[in-house]
Each structure stands twice: as structure tokens, then as C-alpha cells.
């Protein structure tokens, strides 16, 4: 797998990025991710008009006040008119409704992408609903926080983070190139995976960890949790995410999450056997191997 680095490190790429930059971006959902995209666009593509959709006026007002969007709409169909790049930033469970509302309003040359944490269902929905599905490119920027709301949006949220793109055989090359250039303009690295590959891998490194954090918090006794320190709080930080958002993600990718759970259950049984005194050396080796592997993963993202 080749990860393409973001940023303008090669002078010859600057002109290429400029030609691919959108003139009008429509962000459907101006929460943490959508707001951060808007702020990053305003910082890096200064001539770009940014319109935003949200179902709450308070959120739209906050997005305008912080400079994430130029124009605000409470109707997604209005928000996408005239846009050459449309980005779905609502929870995945809302995508069917949003796609239905914008299908008849997006420009013929507009490109549509998203920031959803699952990809198979999203790509399938786009193929069924959008009039020009070849101009849809699935995206998953691996950036965010357990916090929600545009008040936590940051223009640097995507700096050096990885964005996974999930093109299919039907994806228009121009659409893929434009979306990839967009994320790299926002200083992201990019990687191409199929929707199936994406959902299998993300189940292991994102969806299962969230479920485990929630399970640990829910299963810890009241007497014990009042003693929790930084280690427990660090491990369970992601359990503070929005329940409705994560419900949709876990249900949508339930087959891969169940496979990851089954693998973990087998590992837990093996780990339980390592707790016998006569296996203390094997336990140490296991823990050292895990520490080494985590260190390598951290260094790979630096």
C-alpha cells in the first residue's frame, strides 16, 4: 500500500494542486469535522466560497461566526447549488436522506465526497441515488476527536493525518484526482483502499476500540471508577463520543466488527492462560512485543 504524502514539498506539484482546487465547496454538516474542513479551506484556498448546511440555526450561526463557512442553509438542496465540491459530513445514518435531497440539485460537473467512517454502504448509496455516481469518491479522513460541535473545529485538524480514499471501477479518474488533491491541499496524506478493505481494517483500528472503551467504562464498578486516573481516562477517552453517531457506524459495519470481536475473544482466552505463574516469561514477551509494535506504529505516523 502506498501512502501519498500531503503538503507542497515538491515545487512541481504546486501548479497541479492549484488547477484542482475547488471554487465553491458545500459542507453538509458543520460540526467538528465539517467546521474544521471549512476553516482549513478558508486558510488554504482563500478564494473558495464555502457554504454550509445544518439543521440547527445555532450551529449554523456558530459556524459563520468562527469563519468556517461564508453562507448558511438549513436545506441541503440549497446548500449544494453551484458547488463544484460537495462534502457529506453528517452522521452516516443521515446519508440516505441527504443524498435524496441533493440528487436533483447538484451541478452536472460537481464532485461529491464524504467523511464517513464506513464505506461499503456509502458507496452503494451514492451509486443508487446520485445521478452521476461516477463523480462520487468515498473519503475517510482519519482525524477527529471525541468532542462534537463546531466550537471545537480547528483549521489544523487534518495536518499530516491520513485520508483513505475508496474509489471503485466506476469512479471517474478526474473525480478521484480532484478529491485527492483537495485533501492533500488540506495537508493530509492519502491512501487508496477498496470499500471492503477499508471497512475490514477500520473495524479493527477504530470501531472495535470504541466499543471496547465503552464496554470498559460500562463494566467498571462504581467503587473502582472513582479511583480512575490518567491511564484509565486515556484508554477510555473515545468512549466520550456521540452515541447516535457510533451506533450508526457499529451497526453499518457489524459483520466486520463481529469478526474483530471473535478474534479478540480468542486472544483474551490465550492471554488468560499467560497469567499462570509458570508462564510469566511468556507474558513478559507478549507485553514487550505489543509495546514494540505500538512504538513502530507511532513512529510510522510521525
Q: Mean pLDDT, nearest integer?
A: 91
Largest sheet: 6 strands, parallel
Tell me the β content: 5-15%
Structural domains: how many: 2
Global geometry: elongated
* N/C terminus separation: 18 Å
Overall CATH architecture of the largest domain = 3-Layer(aba) Sandwich
Which structural category do the helix and sheet elements fall into?
alpha/beta
Helix content: 40-55%
Number of strands: 10
Please mark out the parts with pLDDT under 50 across 5 or more consecutive residues, or reply none. Answer: 5-18
Total number of helical segments? Answer: 13
Order of strands across the main sheet: 4-3-2-5-6-7
Rg computed from alpha carbons, rounded to a whole number of angstroms: 21 Å
CATH fold category name of the largest domain: Rossmann fold
Q: What's the SSE pattern?
A: EHEHEHEHEHEHEEEHEHHHHHH
